[in-house]
Amino acid sequence: MTLFSNLLMGFGQALSPFVLLYTFIGTVVGTAIGVLPGLGPAATLGILLPITFGMDPLCAMAMLCGIYYGAQYGGSTTSILLNMPGESASVVTCLDGHEMAKRGRGGAALGISAIGSFVAGTIGTLLLYLIGAPISEAALAFGPAEYTILMALGLSMATSLGGNQLKSMIMCILGLLVGTMGTDSLTGLNRFAFGITSLEQGFELVPILMGLFALGEILSDIEDGMGSNPEMLSVSTRLRDLLPTGKDMKNSLGAMLRGSIGGFFISVLPGIGAATSSFISYAVERKLSKHPEEFGQGAIEGVAGPESANNAGSSGAMVPLLTLGIPGTTTAAILAGGLMMYGLVPGPLLFRDYPQFVYGLIATMFIGNMLLVILNLPLISLWIRMLKVPLHILYPVVIAFIIIGGYSTSLNTFDLFVLVLFGFFGYLINKNKFPAAPFILGYFLGPLFEANLRKALIIGRGNPGIFVERPISGVLIALMVMVLIGPGVMSFVKNRLKPAGSGSIKD
């Protein structure tokens, strides 16, 4: 198939009424979640994942992906109006977005954020469409030895998914251990069931995700306190006041394009994340500006660039997930769990065996980005009112949904026990600053790593030299070394490019 025919096939799938409906639901829910500080897309996907059980895979993933990139968009609203980032990737938007709001230009800041998000989402999705198939075709040449190194590369990325490498490594090892529980995929024997019948198949993924990312996060927020909502700057919600001027668009166009392309390729690297790409975009725009002193004082380029990088990053994060089966972010790990729940294994076989699903999903991302810019500018007043909902009313409702969702997946009370267990585990690791994402990465990739390792050693008759026989193995090993030293390099770059006024952001 040609690229053009693949795109037509994808839109043929995406334009069906039910897929359009779930794409719409996902983008609206995602924006709402991004607006509300604290909950986040990972926790939301953990809550909603059981609801999608039994749904058509394309409808389900269209909704879940819509929540993902919709939340990236919604995070800018609280950054601009409250100086509180709804998402970690929106931290940099506070620097100039909130300053614009204080000067009476909050509407223009929200407008340029929406337009930048649309431009970035469209460019990012187009790049995903163009490079996804070639990468997956190259990965199809991998044998068990290459897959073993690829999975090891994915596991090494656990050190990039948290601030502390040692804590990230500990969590990844715990995930590996939990992933070994249940039935051995090669021998069919039960392992580490401890005589408990319910453990013979291991822990289900959905209760783990809901416990770690939803219940654990809410318990942490409850302990931190749910006082009165912070003071919010007033902003006109008339559509004409939200549209940037011609001068604003001229000043922002270059920042949007640079942020979109740079943010996409930075986020393709697993473990880097949209927050880093938005930070780098801000620093680059400040360096390129003829008036760098205006940054931190309400420069519109300081909103357009980072927001574009942020939203392009959600498309970039889908590249390693769909093509190699490696989730590079927490949210991507949950999406990987969703794919497996629908009977689809993320990786190169998706493009070969399920092209209608893959290109249909990419087409929904084009449509979703268009829906975001069409719907969300008129809905700004709704998002502002939502910010006034007290958390002590919101969270009990969310907890009820978590419990119902945890039980409805398999109608097994043991899953409720697992959900509560991992909820308290999530609370404890949050309290002690241990990242949850490496645990999921270890749990998800560990069984794949073990199975391919054993297959490779069987093929090589126990000779470890099989892992370095082909040139691609050397490339993957080199990438693994880069991943392990990458955090140190990124830390150095951040310190060198640290923007002025970053201390004004509220925690």
Task: Explain what the structure shows.
The structure is a single chain. It contains 21 helices and two strands. The longest helix is centred in the first third of the chain and has 34 residues, at 106-139. The chain starts with a helix and ends in an 11-residue tail after the last helix. α4 (57-82) packs antiparallel against α14 (330-341) and α6 packs parallel to α13 (301-324). With 507 residues, it is mainly α. The protein has one domain (3-504). The chain crosses the membrane at residues 108-131, 138-162, 168-190, 261-284, 321-345, 357-377, 389-407, 436-453, 473-493. Residues 20-441 form the DUF112 domain. Pfam families: TctA. Keywords: Membrane, Transmembrane, Transmembrane helix.
Q: How many E strands?
A: 2
Global morphology: globular
SS-derived structural category: mainly alpha
Query: What oligomeric state do these chains adopt?
Result: single chain
Q: Strand order within the widest sheet?
A: 1-2
Order of helices and strands: HHHHHHHHEEHHHHHHHHHHHHH
Protein name: DUF112 domain-containing protein
Pfam families: TctA
Domain DUF112: 20-441
Organism: Formimonas warabiya
